[in-house]
Amino acid sequence: MDSDRLPLVGVRRQGLDNPINNGPFCNYKNASDPSSGKYCTQAKDYDSVFNDPDHSVTGNNLEFYGTYTPNNGAIASGKVVADQSGFLNAQLNDYPKLAPEEATRQVMGYYTEEEVPTLVDLVDEFTTFNSWFSCVPGVRTAAGHGKNDDDFLNYGISSKSIFEAANEKGVSWLNYDGTNGEFEPDSLFFTYVNQTSRSNVVPVENFFQDAYLGVLPKFSYINPSCCGTNTNSMHPTGNVSYGEVFVKQIYDAIRQGPQWDKTLLFITYDETGGFYDHVPPPLAVRPDNLTYTETAKNGQKYTLHFDRLGGRMPTWVISPYSKKGYIEQYGTDPVTGKPAPYSATSVLKTLGYLWDIEDFTPRVAHSPSFDHLIGTTLREDAPIALKTPHTFSV
């Protein structure tokens, strides 16, 4: 999914570290001024956030560290750890006409179990990650382009992708694309796919046909429609309920199709979009030597070395061989043998084991896989259909 939401913050299940279980957690109106007033995590009762929070690199800095330009050396040495103090501050900076109470609901609010029944169904029926983090503390990449500018769209990313690796290994794949949005499908960001495999990109409607008919390829990559009104990625200003409908449609098609007993459905998000979490993002192995420099809204410049992760995101392993109602905590760094958080590179690591693909980067080499979460016993109790979502009162 392409969401910038944290919809599991209000789910009461043992093993989920969230405000409803361990909070509330609070921010000051001004991150550096305790006298400015304290506002705390709370339930919110609307389907869409119309004021998109700042999720640039420097915006994430303010949200995580209370400043646009934290000291990189102090972070790398462990002397400075994110205190998650600036989410409210950042939202009020961007939308100064908002009352603090409303800004708090927007960036620190959470959905109750009653509001997101489809996603709660996934938690109760399959395996949920408690420590899955965004690969980047922002929306930028280490691929040499800092923004989605014309140069990026014209020339793409030259880095090797999972799609190119799949072709090399003879693994069939399709990128099913939600066409009701403003963004190209993920695979077309890569130069290789643009030049050799554009026919592998098909409308998302084809996925439902293929799933029910039992002709899905070995690797299906699904993009929701993004972003804005009437899209289903859950990204502001889209509706959470639309995203739940999309999740249900995908699951139901696989579950009711003939390939269910040999399918792993993996659902995750791209990044956290400036929405609050109390858990500080951990450090990470650099994927390469590239950096990204950004000018913050206060005019200061900041350079990211891609040596730390972004915020946590809901992520699920859904399979007739995955544990029912299981909450996965940390994985294991295969190089050091130490506990390590999961991120999108864990998908690359796991697929690397499956298809004998060499690690793309040092980051992938150190990423924990999740193949151990797939058992050998076929479950017969997986629901035929997920619970039906509903519209919100607001």
UniProtKB/TrEMBL annotation:
Organism domain of life: Eukaryota
One Pfam match: Phosphoesterase
GO biological process, one term: phospholipid catabolic process
UniProt key word Hydrolase: yes
Molecular-function annotations in GO: hydrolase activity, acting on ester bonds
Keyword Hydrolase: yes
InterPro entries, A to Z: Alkaline_phosphatase_core_sf, Phosphoesterase
Protein name, as recorded: Unnamed protein product
Coiled-coil annotated residue ranges, if any: none
Keywords noted in UniProt: Hydrolase
